[in-house]
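Model it.
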Amino acid sequence: MSPKKAATGGIKWGLISGTVFILVLWLNNAGNWIAAAMIKGIDYLTLYPANMFSFILTVVGMLLLTLYSAYFSKKTIAQHDPSQINLRTIGFIITAVGLYYDIIYVMFLSMGAVGGWGMWYAWFTGHNLDLWLIALPFAGLPLLLKKRIHPPKQDT
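Modeled.
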């Protein structure tokens, strides 16, 4: 077992699992928004700008973040050099996922259930086990301050 191969394998699977995690978050949140719009009707989105913003942020914004994460992961895995990983990009992705939850939650706290209580609000605030992601920007922001992983110094 070589130490370099172990590090690249862990990084590879970390990037893949992180991207799949963001994809699953998008599927879950977008699916709940689409189901809420189907149950309440399209007016639930078109008559209330806050709901439309939340819907677009979820369906389009999280999808774009998922695609960007997949692009970054593929590009980084192909490098085969752990010292060339751009930690700022990883920090951006982590922070963006957390900010999504922050924005949606603060919107709910400040405006309430716009358009009436529905499936989306019941799921997001009451049954969502992913609300821990609200704290994710605290982990992502320090990574925005770094550029690359520096390899450990070799003792000679």
